[in-house]
Amino acid sequence: MKSLPIIFPFSAISSFNFSKNRKRRVYCLPMLGDAIIAFFSNFGYIGMLIALFCIFIIDSMFFPMVPEFFLLVIYSTNPSFEWGVVLILIAAIAIFSGNTLLYIIVKKFGLPHFIQKLMKKYSGMMIAQDEKMLLINRIAPVLPYTGAFIAVNNWSYKKSIAYILAGGIAKFSFLVMLSGFFYTIFEKGIAQRATFCLIIITIALGIFLSYIRKRKIYGKGVKR
Q: Taking the model in full, what pTM does it have?
């Protein structure tokens, strides 16, 4: 099966002159996403869907993978409305599956008491201390392993998953729609560069909002 043409924004970013240790620390996870996409691209569009699913599962259960941006990378292989809808659907299924599986594991097997205590304390310093935080988390990502936090804080599973899916689908739809708009008004090469800029801006905005929110959280912790 013919492999698909893929742009790798994070590989391009990592080519800048950073120190060796910092470069490895900052870009190893995005480069893992690049590797997953590169491998599955050999299997055509089905492979791309599997790659996207894997990236979102890893992000939900193990460590941050900035999956929204790989969503745009894969979307660029076929910037059509139908392809965008399919990708958003796969992303939604993946975040549902990953968060649900992590929730079940933590509920069934539990976590060490000191970890639960730290997680509850961290949750208590959030701007919202219930399931609504999961919706805010899509804008300013400060709460990783959300499935585990749902279990530890005894939040409503149905309400939590609804917030996660609503926030995720809204964010994914906005990014795909904006990228699709670029492909509508620009030539393909310019549209790819515009999408690349969208990726960078979204990453930077997410990091900035997360940094600001974490400063406020840690500030509250110090005052307490």
A: 0.81
For residue 116, give every residue at least 6 positions away whose Cβ sits within 8 Å of its Cβ, in sequence order, or none.
Answer: 110, 152
Q: Is 185 within the bounds of a domain?
A: yes
2 within domain boundaries? no
- Domain membership of residue 1 (yes or no) is no
Rounded to whole angstroms, the Cα distance separating 65 from 9 reads 14
Rounded distance between C-alpha atoms, residue 161 and residue 167, angstroms: 10
- At a CB cut-off of 8 Å and minimum separation 6, what does 120 contact? 152, 153
Residue 3 is assigned to a structural domain of this protein: no
Q: Total domain count for the chain?
A: 1
State the residue range of the domain holding 47. 9-223
pLDDT tens-digit readout, 99-120: 999 999 999 999 999 999 999 9
Q: Using alpha carbons only, what angle is made at residue 70 by residues 64 and 74, rounded to the nearest 5 degrees?
A: 155
Tell me: the pLDDT tens digits for 156-173? Answer: 999 999 999 999 999 999
List, for residues 32-79, the tens digit of each pLDDT value: 888 999 899 899 999 999 999 999 999 999 988 889 889 998 998 999
